[in-house]
Amino acid sequence: MARLEDVRDRYGAYIRADQRQELQASTLDKSLMPIVRLRMEREGHGLTDAYDPQSMYMVGVQLRHLPPHRLWREGQPVETGHFRPGHLNIYDLRRDWVAELNDPFDVVQFYVFQQTVDEIAHEVHGKSSIALAPFHVANRVDPVLHHLALSLVPALSDPTRASRLFIDQVSTAIQTHLVLTYGNETIRPARRQGGLAPWQLRTAKELIESRLDGDVSIEELAKACRLSRSHFSRAFRASTGQSPQQWLTSLRVQRAEELLRSTDLPLTEVSLRCGFASASHLVQVFSRLRGMPPGVWRRRNGRSTSMDDVH
């Protein structure tokens, strides 16, 4: 399976851009799903370059309006129309695609291997092999993938502030949605009732708690609970009312409250001990969940330091 660097080498010059931001997420089959944001503010990109065919899909989610442009598949013209924000396109990279782009664009691309699609189809409902929909079927606005792509924009801008758990959780949702919605066979996920067993919930919480920096994957949590990734994610939410990432964020804030209440540590140190990327990251998340900055919360609970005054 290819790594982010392999995909960059094969497809990095396919669409030239003024700005390129990249992430990589683990997939069910232990490979990586490269995630790339491409932005071009000026006109006149011209024709896209040639690339090496491979058994994978390039899934593009538009973040800004792209007017109609010329597109060819295997040398045959393909109608495009207007690409609105949230517009989804699926390109089977076993085929030869060429586009002429002359307007500014902003797109998030997900590179999904056929093996990953097959693994998800098998896990969800025992299907051995499926293909994702051709371009003309998937060529529409998809509010689910638009929301998921937007949720990754801050992580793409600054990968150091995104936990591995968050990226894996979003990528799992993206891959599963693609298979269930755009697979060439109708797949209905098997119904599973109930949450995690007590020992599974305890194991998952202890593992997340030991990695407050978020350096734990959905795959690792599911394996520790002897479940598939999709089953684990659903069962964890059923047991806690939260996704693993939401539970991690709540735990970080609770730990921060303990340190703010019982110590005089500056916010920079509190943020590091609680798994936040920086003091500003702590302030942003704490304020959203508690309705006030941590410095204000600390003063209201009997402690204050001069370093907290600006927060």
Keywords:
3 domains, Jelly Rolls, globular, Arc Repressor Mutant, subunit A, 311 residues, 12 helices
Number of DSSP E strands: 10
Tell me about the biggest sheet? 6 strands, antiparallel
Which stretches are poorly predicted, pLDDT < 50 over at least 5 residues? 27-31
State the CATH superfamily name of the largest domain.
Answer: Jelly Rolls
What's the number of structural domains? Answer: 3
The gross shape turns out to be globular
Work out the helicity level.
40-55%
What oligomeric assembly is this protein in? single chain
CATH fold assignment of the largest domain: Jelly Rolls
Q: Helical segment tally?
A: 12
Alpha carbon gap, first and last residue: 46 Å
Mean pLDDT: 81
Which strand order spans the largest sheet, edge to edge or round the barrel? 1-2-9-4-7-10
Q: What structural class do you assign from the helix and strand content?
A: alpha+beta
